Amino acid sequence: MSARLTHLLEHVLAGEPALGDEVEAVFREAERLRRRRTRRLIAAGGGVTAVVAVVGYLLATTLLAPAPPPAGKPAAKPAAPARPAATPSSGVSVQVVPSSVADPVLALIAPVVDGKKMHIYPRSPERGSGWRQYRVVDKDGKPRGNVAIAVYTVAEDLCFPVLAAPSKCARTSWAPAGVEFARYDDSDDPDRQVRQTIARRISDGRTIALMSTGERDTGSAARGKPALSGKQVETISTDRRIFDAFGPAERCTGPASGACPVFPVPVPLTNGD
Description:
This protein is an alpha+beta fold. It has 2 domains: 19-65; 99-259, Protein Transport Mog1p, Chain A, CATH 3.40.1000. It is built from 6 helices and 7 strands; from the N terminus they run H-H-H-E-E-E-E-E-E-E-H-H-H. A 7-stranded antiparallel beta sheet has the order 1-2-3-7-6-5-4. Strand 5 (179-186) and strand 6 (194-201) form a beta hairpin. The longest helix has 44 residues, at 20-63. It is rod-shaped and about 165 Å long.
């Protein structure tokens, strides 16, 4: 810078304060403004987070709340505890099997027994290939006899037995769906009466033996009377559904025959497989 220009500038700056303190004041003010802006941003972020949390909570409680029952329909009651098994007066625990959960064979027999205010359930030994056995108790749990049923296959015409003349064939009756049958009811012993029917489906030779007996050695004609009447045994054993209630391969012949129930009138199997 020339000496003349320096002389002129000295007159311009004459009386002005020193710049050192002003520069420091400018930096302090800038720092204060920066901190205040940072605090505002942090406060604004916290507010947004709180709003999001509240909205999320309200949505969750609204969407996940259980739906109210329809108008006029009361709320569902809690499930009742399972009922214990019935206990007869003899003190022996009896597991009553409802018809609704019975096996296919029992499902056809149980409604008839239930209609007499009695209960029927599997007895031991209860089942095998081609046969079932059931126990009957009255409403007080007292034994009322047994029910046994078996299925056979007779390939050719069946000679239905005649008790009084074993060498002869009985005259059969006919039921719908091509089923021939004969009844063998025994009421000679009032303490243990027997109701039995043998029925054969002509189309495939499938043969049913069904027996209902009263309780043995009770000395009571009432308890010795079978749970099923002769007509009921006939109706069940000639129902087309009873033939199909057993599995296709089930039959009380061959290796399974030794475990089959013993019937007062056995099914002749001389022509069976």
